[in-house]
Design goal:
homodimer; about 170 residues; Arc Repressor Mutant, subunit A; 2 domains; three-stranded antiparallel beta sheet; about 65% helix; about 5% strand; DNA-binding
DNA sequence: TTTAAATAATTAATGCATAAACAATTAACA
DNA sequence: TGTTAATTGTTTATGCATTAATTATTTAAA
């Protein structure tokens, strides 16, 4: 939490309401991350690993192909290999080779993984509630509205950026 | 940007306004990061390296001790070693050994580093302006206010968490 | 049917973060 | 003075992300 005072310092060269909004956004996000990290710490699980677990938790009993997981998480397959390695080491997930197509590997959540995921999901909701009690309902919905507008604008900016400059 | 639709999916298990606020926050942050990343890309510089450069840019001509940089960025010294390594390879920074205390090493920004930093700072302000044009001034200040309240609350939560439970 | 191309996962190299162990140097003090 | 402490920075091992190269297998084509 101390880090935030320093962050403000290192962005002292930023002036104007636009840049300040962005910096405040970064600070707030960093604080939220830190608080959640503290909560998550005792479970020895990262955001990514938790995400992957939830995906498998919501999948069928056969689990999911590694590349399917990568597609859903929008993350490279190399990354999935590593995440699954670590989750497997924790006994939360197992690999099962597909017999009809031996290139494929299904990742399946274990019993231990299921109860673990349920526990963390429960906690996550609890923590979110605690944290967001800081704001009243009006502030929360106002915040959501402004962020939605920002998101839409960003998507549009990106879309425009991607349009190649036609010159002829 | 596509990633965001997926993010919403993987957090489908999250319900209630509190959790939703947090997810929207994460999404918005991720979008901002992505847009800035696209901008930064052509400069071959990460957030961390840029931060470090700005710190040296604002320091005296003698530069700063590596440990001082670590203190300011609230980052481990091992990390600083690596960042300086990479910045040095790019010719933006150089190491100078202190003669009176041979344990110390000063990091000094080079001429190339200075003009580079000025260029990127200028761009950063420009980009921030472009992006935050999405919101009007009223929305920007409202957003800042709500985030400030959230930040204060988070700091307080952390402070309370740190107080050991006295039992006697 | 043999060869070429596509697909699935892993490995290797790199960036950025951490903690822990280490070497070198300086400071403290008995 | 000589031994112990503290400090400064690097190295090593690990986690999590990327891209590019590699292996194994299946599919398509010639």
């Amino acid at each position: 939490m101390e880090r935030l005072k320093r962050m403000a310092e290192s962005y002292a060269w930023v002036e104007g309401i636009a840049s300040r909004t962005i910096i405040e956004f970064k600070k707030t996000h960093e604080m939220l991350e830190e608080v959640f990290e503290n909560y998550f710490q005792e479970y020895d699980i990262s955001d990514s690993k938790f995400n992957l677990l939830v995906i498998l938790y919501n999948s069928s009993e056969k689990g999911l192909m590694l590349s399917e997981i990568g597609d859903r998480m929008l993350v490279t397959k190399a990354n999935i290999t590593g995440l699954i390695d670590r989750l497997e080491k924790q006994g939360l997930v197992k690999r099962i080779r597909d017999d009809t197509d031996r290139r494929k590997i299904q990742a399946v959540i274990t019993k231990k993984g299921i109860s673990f995921t349920e526990e963390v999901m429960r906690k996550y909701k609890e923590w979110s509630g605690d944290i967001m009690n800081i704001l009243n309902d009006d502030e929360k919905s106002r915040l959501i509205n402004i962020m939605s507008k920002l998101q839409k604008g960003l998507v549009q900016m990106e879309a425009e950026r991607r349009i190649p400059h036609v010159t002829a």
